[in-house]
Amino acid sequence: AQSVTQLGSHVSVSEGALVLLRCNYSSSVPPYLFWYVQYPNQGLQLLLKYTTGATLVKGINGFEAEFKKSETSFHLTKPSAHMSDAAEYFCAVSLNSGGYQKVTFGTGTKLQVIP
Amino acid sequence: EAGVTQFPSHSVIEKGQTVTLRCDPISGHDNLYWYRRVMGKEIKFLLHFVKESKQDESGMPNNRFLAERTGGTYSTLKVQPAELEDSGVYFCASSQGRLNSPLHFGNGTRLTVT
Hints:
The structure holds two protein chains of two kinds. Chain A is mainly beta. Chain A is 0% helix and 60% strand. In chain A, a hairpin with a 2-residue loop joins strand 9 and strand 10. The termini of chain A are far apart. Chain B is an all-beta fold. In chain B, a hairpin with an 8-residue loop joins strand 9 and strand 10. The radius of gyration of chain B is 13 Å and the shape is globular. Chain B starts with a strand and ends with a strand. Chains A and B meet through strand 4, strand 5, strand 9 and strand 10 of A and strand 4, strand 5 and strand 9 of B.
C-alpha cells in the first residue's frame, strides 16, 4: 500500500523567506511523485513531478523538490516566498495499478505568506 | 484547450435527497477520475474510468454512489439517498496516457447535505 504524509497542515512564512513544505511517502516500489497546488475556489494544478532520472525537479513559479530515496522524502522548496504563493499544497504518489496509475494524496499544507 | 469542467459548483440538499454531479473532461482524455475531500482531510480516490469502462472503483464508499461515463465522454456521479457524511468537495480529474501522466482537475463541486 502507498501513503503520503505531509508534516504541518499550516505553514507561515514571511514574504521573501524560504518556503519548505515537507512530504514523506511510503511505498514498496519506486513511486512517481507529484506536487499540486490549489488556489482558493480552483481545482488542483500540477507544480512538478518526479518520475525517473534527476532527483532535483524544477517546477513552475520557482518551486523545486528533491527526491531522496534513502529518506523516502519529496520536500517542496522555494528560495523566496511571494504573496501569490499563498495556497494549499498537496503531495501525491502514483503507483502502477493494473497498468494504470493510482494517485494517492496527502492531507495538504496551507501556506500563508506574511507581508 | 478547454479544461475540466464540473457542474454544479455548489449543491445544498437535505438528507435523503438525490444529487447528480457532472464532469466534462478534457477532450481526448481517456482517463477520468473522481475524488472527494471531506473537510480538512486528504483527497480520497473514488473511482477511475478508462473511456466508458470502470477501471477501478475500489474507493466508492457504498452502493448509494453510482458513477457513469456514457460513451466515454462526460461522467456523472449520483448520490442516492444522500447522507450527512457525504458532504465534501467532489473533484473530477482527467489525464492522457496510462502512467505518470499529470491529472487535470476541475474546480470541484462542494456538496452540503443538511
